Amino acid sequence: MTAVGGEGVQIQLADDLNEERSNSFSGSVDWTTSFGHWQANILLEGFYTDLRDVFILEDIGVNADGFAMKERRNGEGARVYGANIDAKIAHGKDVSLQVGFTAQKSRYKRAEVWTEVDGVELVTERMMRTPDFYGYFTLAATPVKRLDLSLSGTYTGSMIVPHYAGYIQNDRMETTPDFFDLNFKAAYTFVLHDHINLQVNAGVQNIFNSFQSDLDKGEFRDSGYFYGPTQPRTFFVGVKISQ
């Protein structure tokens, strides 16, 4: 059950619902080298997944209790395919950088109905909540002994997300912006007596405050209309004791 427009929405399973099945294929090339005190690694990978009896949701009206009803049914199928690259370079324990990027397509084999507005069925060939591009990076460094610094980021490309009526007038498919979530953390470790370590750390998550700007409000909001980073800009401090 979820909530849309201040009302509950129940999901039932179709009587003839089959489990999803898939065949997946992938291949990769991995290259590692070193030069001086530096080590590097690059991984290239391609992948293809064929989904059969893929799950979809369709409106089926209102039940006797007044709840809007959706039914989970089997669609024609879908294909997910693409490629990704992962690379890492490191200088011992002093500094390391790791990056990754994926380009993919997630498409139904035929356009599937996701809702109905004024008697007109709305369809989509693109699978919902699946960006075509996404990636990450992590940079870690120890500039001086016992001081650890890390900078990391996650990129999420544009995707489509269903937005159901309530706060808005009619159901519609939204195309989201892309997001870049950047984080920083610094930690210093003090060595106390009897081999006890005290680590003090601080940092900030989502430095650019990359966050969904069109959240629904009020009692008629669509509670499932949520995408992007899960928290706004957040500062933190911490203490850790270890032996």
Count of separate DSSP helical elements = 0
The overall number of domains is: 1
| CATH topology description | Maltoporin, Chain A
* Quaternary organisation of the protein chains: single chain
Overall average residue pLDDT: 90
Task: Give the CATH H-level superfamily.
Answer: TonB-dependent receptor, beta-barrel domain
Provide the low-confidence segments as ranges.
none
**Percentage of residues assigned to helices:** under 10%
The general outline is globular
Cα-atom radius of gyration: 24 Å
Percentage of residues in strands: over 45%
State the name of the first-level CATH class: Mainly Beta
Q: What is the number of E strands?
A: 16
Task: Report the order of strands and helices.
Answer: EEEEEEEEEEEEEEEE
Overview features:
four-stranded mixed beta sheet, mainly beta, 243 residues
Strand and helix map with partners:
Elements lengths: L1 E3 L2 E7 L7 E15 L2 E15 L2 E8 L5 E7 L3 E14 L3 E23 L2 E7 L6 E9 L5 E10 L3 E4 L8 E4 L3 E13 L5 E9 L28 E9 L1
Parallel strand pairs: 2-6
Antiparallel strand pairs: 1-2, 3-4, 4-7, 5-6, 7-8, 8-9, 8-10, 10-11, 11-14, 12-13, 14-15, 15-16
Report on the structure:
With 243 residues, this protein is mainly β. It has a single domain (2-242), classed as Maltoporin, Chain A (Beta Barrel). The chain is built from no helices and 16 strands. The chain has strands at 2-4, 7-13, 21-35, 38-52, 55-62, 68-74, 78-91, 95-117, 120-126, 133-141, 147-156, 160-163, 172-175, 179-191, 197-205, 234-242. Strands 3, 4, 7, 8, 9, 10, 11, 14, 15 and 16 form a 10-stranded antiparallel β-sheet that branches. A 4-stranded mixed β-sheet has the order 1-2-6-5, with no helix packed on it. The chain has a two-stranded antiparallel sheet with strand order 12-13. It is globular, with a radius of gyration of 24 Å. The mean pLDDT is 90.
